[in-house]
């Protein structure tokens, strides 16, 4: 038997012959974390913005955020003890100034 030499094209030649398709590309998967939550907490912490935090049971707590981590928020209050709140127990939160401006805008004869 004789030695056979296989002839294979180089990778560069193959790339020149068959360029990558641009029309069949998939969309990139969105980032798992946008860091928007972290940015919001840092902004409110630095300015010591008075916040209203509504818990799942409807309880409203007022204070400013001293620090936070993955699972909880520390809420400082002036006339009451400071609280450590688990994030999963928070329904929503907003700035206290929004509460006052919302009450002023509501017509005086209507109630929700």
Key traits:
about 110 residues, SH3 type barrels, about 25% helix
What report would you give on this structure?
- The chain has three helices and five strands, in the order ααβββββα.
- The protein is α+β, with helices and mostly antiparallel strands.
- It has a domain at 36-112: Roll (SH3 type barrels).
- Strand 3 (72-76) and strand 4 form a beta hairpin.
- The longest helix has 12 residues, at 36-47.
- The chain is rod-shaped and about 95 Å long.
CA-CA gap between termini? 95 Å
**Describe the biggest sheet?**
5 strands, antiparallel
Shape: rod-shaped
Helix fraction, binned, reads 25-40%
What is the CATH-assigned architecture of the domain at 36-112?
A: Roll
Q: Determine the number of helices (DSSP H or I, runs of at least 4 residues).
A: 3
Query: What fold name stands as the CATH topology of the domain at 36-112?
Result: SH3 type barrels
Topology:
Elements: H1 11-17, H2 36-47, E1 51-55, E2 60-68, E3 72-76, E4 83-86, E5 90-95, H3 96-105
Antiparallel strand pairs: 1-2, 1-5, 2-3, 3-4
Q: Would you summarize the structure shown here?
A:
This protein is of the alpha+beta class and 112 residues long.
């Amino acid at each position: 038997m004789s030695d056979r030499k296989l002839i294979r094209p180089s990778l560069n030649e193959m790339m020149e012959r068959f360029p990558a398709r641009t029309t069949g590309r998939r969309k990139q998967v969105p980032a798992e974390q946008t860091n928007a939550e972290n940015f919001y907490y840092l902004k409110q912490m630095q300015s010591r913005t008075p916040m209203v935090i509504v818990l799942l049971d409807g309880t409203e707590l007022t204070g400013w955020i001293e620090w936070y981590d993955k699972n909880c928020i520390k809420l400082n209050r002036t006339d009451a003890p400071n609280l450590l709140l688990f994030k999963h127990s928070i329904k929503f939160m907003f700035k206290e100034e929004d509460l006052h401006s919302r009450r002023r805008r509501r017509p005086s004869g209507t109630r929700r």
